[in-house]
């Protein structure tokens, strides 16, 4: 599920440290169906290390997507890096598995409803 971090990446945007990850915050962020879909897609379909918003193919306003990606980062679920004007994300698999073993397996096994 996790990709090896390539060399020469930009520094991550501010995020909670592993020891600061809180289950209620992570579950709160994952309680939104769109955010749950984003994390699941990253876990199951990711081929590259970081992905831009466009990779997800979500038909939502940019401001809405920005909000959702920020919520995932601030909860400690994803790590984001700034590449010029674009932010790219990936799941903090090792960190989350350390704090909450099995949680990401549940997210990956979740079957989303037909409608987003």
TrEMBL record:
Signal peptide: none annotated. One of its GO terms (molecular function) is DNA-binding transcription factor activity. Residues 25-105 form the HTH arsR-type domain. CDD domains: HTH_ARSR (cd00090). Keywords: DNA-binding. It comes from the Bacteria. This is DNA-binding transcriptional ArsR family regulator.
